[in-house]
């Protein structure tokens, strides 16, 4: 028997999603936008190196990460595609980034001060998300200083960018307001003498629903991994991750049997209970206790009682289940298995948190119809 629980990543699905999103980006404003694949957080839990190699072979030309440590992981693996990193304090190893051709985001005046000679930057303006990005009031002076540094040849300003707050909520007025502000920010930068090659604003939902936000580059995260970014809008993405395990205990129990900690599930008939070797340490939310479900042999079965750290129990009824049988915790949604969106709903969270929460001890394995990208 293989690993007791594993996350199987379908790289064909990642490739399909990349092609689809790159196609949509190509139809935006202007000449069409390039695609940045956001591979932060270990590619949303899917494994950064196989995903990075797949997206770069399928239409993405940029990689997006948060920390410089994440950028290092990509460069150390020999991937030399353009990379943008965007989340750090002011004392990180920016010189390493400059030496290794990793573009850096500048989100405060202090960050601009901390940039070493030879670095290429993207200036991030806060257009209304009120998270990261240069404060609106600091923007005119920051672009003036950046233009000055560029004239002296100290830094190169390749990009101006921002992030949308509500593109996954079609019609939300904040989207139009952020677009307006972004245009204003670009105009202020142009007046200061900056004409960056890359203006970028759209995330997955923006790619699908806001063509006016595509500009020169789009940043695809969640959608790359196959989750539709807007409820009720089907772009045609394919979910990439299947979380599966093998039954490690199967037994027949009578009615009235209390199951798992505190016996919060009690059987109401003769039934088969199946033990699944994955728990909250592996990313199975405790909120799925008595609420979630899995698929066994193409049949959906409820989670019985409390999810524990390493394991949980499923009520399989009269299904013929044997030790070692496969249990699909979530998957593409082509059959009886739940999707990651259903898991997110049961756990009162978003699919991002489920995917990035799959624990480190769950091995990632890869399937692909072509040659597997190594690493
Ligand atoms: C700055 C930035 N751009 C793009 C993305 C990708 O967003 P999404 O997953 O909605 O496509 C993220 C991820 O959260 C992000 O932080």
UniProtKB/TrEMBL annotation:
One of its GO terms (molecular function) is pyridoxal phosphate binding. Coiled coil: none annotated. The modification N6-(pyridoxal phosphate)lysine is found at residue 40. Pathway: Amino-acid biosynthesis; D-alanine biosynthesis; D-alanine from L-alanine: step 1/1. One of its GO terms (cellular component) is cytosol. It comes from the Bacteria. InterPro entries: Ala_racemase, Ala_racemase/Decarboxylase_C, Ala_racemase_C, Ala_racemase_N, PLP-binding_barrel. The keyword Isomerase applies. Pfam families: Ala_racemase_C, Ala_racemase_N. This is Alanine racemase. It comes from Dactylosporangium siamense. The lineage of its organism: Bacteria, Bacillati, Actinomycetota, Actinomycetes, Micromonosporales.
